[in-house]
Specification:
The structure holds two protein chains of two kinds.
Chain A (H helix, E strand, L loop, with lengths): L2 H30 L1 H19 L4 H5 L9 H25 L5
Helix pairs in contact in A: 1-4
Chain B lengths: L10 H7 L8 H7 L6 H8 L12 H33 L16 H42 L1
Helix pairs in contact in B: 4-5
The chains are: A mainly alpha, B mainly alpha.
């Protein structure tokens, strides 16, 4: 792999690993909040009461959905860069212009 | 005494011209005998012409195909799992608990985190996997075109 591609590959790996690590940190941060513990009971109350009785607004108020920020985008972008650098390396090697 | 030219040679004279037999020991016969051809040479003469060496497989292309298959299949299965999980949530059960066990107590991860994670990653994984497959096919196509032009 030629040096510029090596750099691109390293950047892709760093972004992918960083994005996945940030995603895991986000999940752990969410699970550490008290809302996460209340969320299940809130949603179960929502399902139960919407089916069998009037919804309990207090229970629904505890509902805190989990959501990501830009973490998945960073991870996916890193993975895409890794794939592109591998494809370029494959093409250059097949064309015989790359150092062995 | 001279013999006429057309006279057949006498046996005694003929035998006298033959050099005396040389007695050679068996060990020296082994040394003097012509060296046997080496087995490698014999095999080389008997073997057919060597085939032209196949071009070495491009390791980056192999890695690209592995990534393409893994990402596409993994992303597709994750998407299916996410869809099934979403369906289960709306039906009131969670995958693993079974359809009959409605309103079981699911964990927060099953209910909130995992569907979001799958919905965030799975479509992109499928897209990148298909992109990798397209790139690998393109490399194959370029290689084939170059071989055809030679």
């Amino acid at each position: 792999m030629i040096p510029p591609l090596r750099g691109l590959f390293a950047v892709g790996i760093a972004l992918a690993v960083g994005g996945v690590a940030a995603s895991i940190a986000r999940i752990e941060e969410y699970l550490a909040t008290p809302f996460a513990l209340d969320s299940t009971s809130g949603v179960m109350a929502f399902y139960t009461e919407s089916l069998f009785s009037a919804p309990d607004t207090d229970a629904i108020a505890q509902y805190l959905p989990f959501s990501f920020g830009i973490e998945p985008i960073v991870a996916i972008a890193g993975l895409a860069i890794v794939i592109v650098s591998i494809a370029l390396a494959a093409g250059l090697r097949n064309s015989g212009r790359s150092a062995p | 005494m001279t013999l006429p030219d057309d006279a057949p040679p006498r046996p005694s004279l003929f035998l006298a011209e033959v050099p005396p037999p040389v007695v050679i020991a068996e060990e020296s016969l082994m040394d003097v005998a012509a060296p046997a051809p080496e087995p490698a040479l014999v095999e080389q003469e008997q073997q057919p012409a060597p085939r032209p060496e196949r071009p070495r497989r491009n390791p980056w292309l192999v890695v690209l195909w592995v990534f393409a298959v893994m990402l596409t299949c993994g992303g597709f299965l994750s998407q299916l799992y996410g869809i099934e999980m979403e369906r289960g949530m709306h039906l009131g059960y969670v995958i693993g608990a079974g359809e009959g066990t409605t309103y079981s107590a699911p964990s927060v991860i099953d209910f909130y985190v995992l569907p979001v994670v799958l919905a965030s990653f799975a479509p992109w994984l499928v897209g990148i996997g298909l992109g990798a497959a397209v790139a690998a096919t393109l490399v194959h196509a370029l290689t084939w075109m170059r071989r055809e032009s030679l």
